[in-house]
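for the record, two folds in this file. i put them one after another cuz i was lazy. first one right below, seq on top, structure tokens after. the second one comes after a little note so u can tell where it starts
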Amino acid sequence: MGKINDQSIVTIKPLAYYKMLLHVLRFGSKYIEHSKLSEVMGVLIGRLEGENEIKNVIVEDVVPVSHGGTIEVKFSVDQLGAFGELDTKIWEQYGDLGWFSVGWYHSHPGLGIFFSETDKYNQIFWQKNPSGVGIVFDHTYLDKPNDFGFRAFRLSETRLDDPSLALKSGYHEVKAIVEPPTDLEFYLKIMDLISAVHTGSPQILELNETVDLFGDIFIPEEEQLESKLPEMNFEEIISTLKKGMDNLVESTVKPMAHLLNTWGQDVVNKIKTHNSEMRNNLKEIRDKLSSEIINLQQSFNYDLQNDLKDLDFYVDDRLEDLDNEKENIKEIVNNSKEGYKNQIDLLFKDNPISQIIEKNTNISNSITEFNNIASNNLKNLEKTGNALKKYTESYKSIDNLIQSNLNTLQEDFLTNFNKKINKIKGNINTLNKETKNYLSDLKAAIILLESSKNPIKIKLETLQTDHKDLQKTVKDLKSQNQELLDKIKKLEEGGV
């Protein structure tokens, strides 16, 4: 597989960005509970520009397709066929403009912006055209300064005909820009959005999505329309209220206090555990780095000193041999000069011309022999120089090898050190997240406890008022009963 050289730019028109943002925020925003966040997916419509194999992409419009957890599932054959049909419809509608589906977009609400293994698999469908692009949104990035909440990606390999090979591919970010609005149409869309917010209508509809105009109308069930004769039992009501209040206090305050104590203890224990683990990890990293660096220094110093010492010995030996060779040559030359001088003197002093010619022949032979000896000595000197040059190069190669090994070991140590540091950072981030969650739950419990005080107080006051009313009612009933008894007694006495 070969790496691609991607210098292209993705330009997103205002309308396309507006529609993608509405789709993403409809199912994922900071105003939606985390458990209710949903991923969205849609198709990019646009055109290509440029002469390179990887061309610039201009995204003119988008088609919101779906939302939900099924987006993180590899596209099936039926789904890919549906995308093919959608591509045909796009070409029928925008073909005169030269527009077609140039990629896809989807969201990772609150999870970060990246290409998962599933995203890489799905990207293969659009990157059969080498310029096909994938856009990933995360609404939490919109809180960052000058961040549009998305990144554009492509797979980094050219061989995408084999999915198994393509899944081994990395991916890279593509430069992307959003054009500012320049015409009235964009601001008309803003007016439509405000109208949809006021009327409670969906701000944007997905492919084949319809709106239920009467879904919010409440129609009661038949049993809810039946009339019943009211029956009241004051003693049962009072007893039920007392039991309800006791059960409410027992079931809320006591478990809540136990839960708060448990949470507090868990937070303290986890903080202690993580702090101890981080301390041990840091100490282990420090000790290991110190030990390994000391061993490395000792090893390199020892080996380097031995190599340099051996090299010095060898150079000294060769230089000494060279000096000896020079002395030998010098001695031979001096001896030759002295011999030639003596022979010439004798030649011209005691010998006739014939003997001079004979002696001259001997001198020529001696000169030839001397030249041969000098030539051999020069060859020996050349060999010695070559050997010295060879060992100098060996010394340089040894020095380069030592430097290379030292750099490799330093890189390995730095890599292991960074891994340990990243692990520690991960533990710290996990601890911070858990602490935040505990604090959030603790605040929620406190708010719930505070909010339950007033209703309980109001119910107690209501019970006291009802109790006084009941006492008054009982007193009135006793008075009426006594009056009735007096009347009955009078009637009986009169009858007698």
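(here's the note) second protein begins now
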Amino acid sequence: MHNLDQAVAAARAAAHCGCPITLLSAQDAAAAAGPGWFAEVAAAARDAAPGADLRAILDCGDRAGDAMAAIRSGVTHLCFRGPDDIARKLEQMGAVLRDEPDEVLDLLDAGDAEAACRRWLDPGQ
């Protein structure tokens, strides 16, 4: 997801379909927007779709400093592509590190993000 509207659309689609969803920020969003922005977007998505089983992961690229800033601000679910020894240190600081999923629905060019998410989550719709 790239913005609040997409995060809310994804959360609503997940609640509608009754399945869990993981919001993955845009690549390197920790550097571009910061963990505070990401935390607020994830909270707003949860508020907009209270029934959604939602996890949110902030992409920190390979920048340990961005990952540490995220952890300090309370954002602990991170995608980090840096060295393994740094990743272990981040985990010791409280990070829950995730690899990028094999399949991702990128909503950047989705005209109707909620409809795109519903089709992704429940292809029979």
